[in-house]
Amino acid sequence: MAAQENALNDPIIMCEDVHKWFDDFHVLKGITTSFQKGERAVICGPSGSGKSTFIRTLNRLEEHQRGTIIIDGVELTDDLRNINLIRQEVGMVFQQFNLFPHLTNLENITLGPIRVRKLTRTEAEEVALSLLERVDIADQAYKYPAEISGGQQQRVAIARALAMEPKIMLFDEPTSALDPEMISEVLDVMRELAHSGMTMLVVTHEMGFAREVADRVMFFDEGVVIEEAAPADFFDNPQHERTKLFISQTLQH
Amino acid sequence: MEEQGLTQEIKPPVSTKGPGRWLKENLFNTWYNTILTCLALVFLFFAFKGFLTWAFTEAEWGVIPANFRLFMVGSYPQEQIWRVWTAIYILSVLMGLSAGLWGGLILRFVVVLSGVWFISALLPFDFELSTRGWCLGAIAMIAVSFFLGRDRTSLRSWILGGWILSFPVIMVVLRGFGENGVLTSRWGGLLLTLILAISGIVVSFPLGVFLALCRQSKLPVIRWVSTTYIEMVRGVPLITILFMGNVLIPIFMPGFDINQVLRMMLCLIFFSAAYMAENVRGGLQGVPRGQHEAAQAVGLNYVQTTLFIVLPQALRSVIPAIVGQFIALFKDTSLVSVIGLIDLLGVARSILANPKWLGLQAEVYLFVAFIYFVFCYAMSYASQDIETDLGVGKH
Ligand SMILES: Nc1ncnc2c1ncn2[C@@H]1O[C@H](COP(=O)(O)OP(=O)(O)OP(=O)(O)O)[C@@H](O)[C@H]1O
Ligand SMILES: [Mg+2]
């Protein structure tokens, strides 16, 4: 309920009837929702339900074919200038980290600030080092991604996104590719980020994290949002049969 | 006590491999391997014995020094030879500066080069004194510029600019102006081979990268044009392209006086670029989609993504294929003799056509093969070195 009241205040992301097809395959079937500044939303749902596709349309890694998406007052269209503006405001963290293997961790982080935000190298390195400090791996700055663990790579990837000073952070299953003992170090960083007031959309199956951090949990199935609610309501009092089934299944594992 | 024993550090077993052990493990480890090794040794012995006897008793190596100038520069006029040396000196200065600044591979290269100049200056043939002087001068140029460039990072962009300008400048130096200069029809020998090979490599590489990018373009017209070009060039033998270029280029570009050297240069560039494009495309396809997406997600545009993320990864994964193409191009320059240019191989053939040197095919072709080999091997060596430097396969 709280989420709905807030949505009236200051939406930073507005989606209106968003549709997406891959060829003939209807992946997103009319998503209408909005997220306000500082909101932390967790998106969950069965595999293939369109969760990744949805958050990827928000920074135009995927193009939507119907409906409107407005990010911080700018509508996502074919206009390349708008796309670049929005990409600077929206950071993204991938399941497979996608660090640039030919650059050191530090260079991975400084690349965007130097080339896009036009900082000098010294300024960018200062920013990068303080971010590495923040995600607790300052000592790995001059190594290459292949030389550090998965959990550390994902933290570099988070630092890389933060270096662009985004207003919104998208996470697509950031811990799914990690060994169990590394999951918590990444979740800690995300928790800290959430407390700092960042707007975050997180696709994850980490229900503990959702319960603790999220303002809202959204449940996707077959390209539609079946149910959305504050985590307490969502987990303890799900309305839909599918949601109930999904929750009981995920909690078993 | 036992606990302590368990946690004691264990050193890796010391490897005791001497040469004797190596021989035993690799050449004589089984009875059939032993037989093979012995057979190979017998074969090598007879082959080498025959060759060495010939090389030291029968061969008339005098043909090489007697025609050394022809091998090096063809019929480039003697009184203008300072132009060639000027070109060499320009390159020496650039190489010396680069060696001082970057060290590593290029430093090793100039050391070897200085050695070659030094030996050349001392060769016991009847060179003119001036040639020996020029050789020593080249060493001096390298040495002086090496110390000038030493750790002078501020010179970096100047040196890079110098390299880019060096090619046109050297062409002008070699050609001179009008009647007082040296017509390109008189360029020949190793000089011509190197000019064709270097221009081919230096221009076809970026052109190939560009074609490969076009072939992956989202715009159908660009993709289509590039694909057609690549497939057409790859479907025609180089020798045909050289013949066609020789007659067609003047027709396509009337009003420009395009000499034969330039025509062959263009043909080699266009030919090599098509193959280069396919090599590069292989590398481009190997870059995972996630890399493009991550680059876009931090806000890089297409050009930046290509320059900073995609190409560095694509190119280093195909360094061996690219250098293979460079080497192939170097050797393919020998085909320009079909339209009458006298490159290194052409010189060899014209010498052999001279009754004075009749029957010395073996000596002359061996020498020519040796020169080709030295340059091609240098490229191969450099490519391995660059791969190690970039940590290919490691990160
Ligand atoms: N590039 C593509 N081309 C064609 N179909 C695609 C493409 N990307 C995704 N799909 C399909 O779209 C559907 C939704 O994919 P999406 O990746 O959004 O699911 P998801 O909810 O993130 O699932 P998961 O939990 O497995 O990551 C899937 O059936 C998938 O096969
Ligand atoms: Mg997904």
Please characterize this protein's 3D structure.
The complex is a heterodimer of chains A (about 250) and B (about 400). Chain A has about 250 residues and is α/β, with parallel strands linked by helices. Chain A has ten helices and ten strands. Chain A starts with a helix and ends with a helix. Residues about 1-5 of chain A have low confidence and may be disordered. In chain B, helix 16 (about 320-330) runs antiparallel to helix 18 (about 360-390). The longest helix of chain B is centred in the last third of the chain and has 30 residues, at about 360-390. Chain B is globular and about 70 Å long. Classes of the chains: A alpha/beta (about 250), B mainly alpha (about 400). The interface between A and B is medium-sized, with 30 and 22 residues. Bound molecules: adenosine-5'-triphosphate and magnesium ion. The site of adenosine-5'-triphosphate has 11 residues of chain A, from strand 2 and helix 2.
How many β-strands of chain A, per DSSP? 10
The CA-CA distance between the termini of chain B, in Å, is 44 Å
Structure class of chain B: mainly alpha
Task: Quote the average pLDDT of chain B.
Answer: 89
Q: What's the number of extended β-strand segments of chain B?
A: 0
Average pLDDT reading of chain A = 92
The global form of chain B is: globular
**What helical percentage do the residues of chain A reach?**
40-55%
Helix segment count of chain A? 10
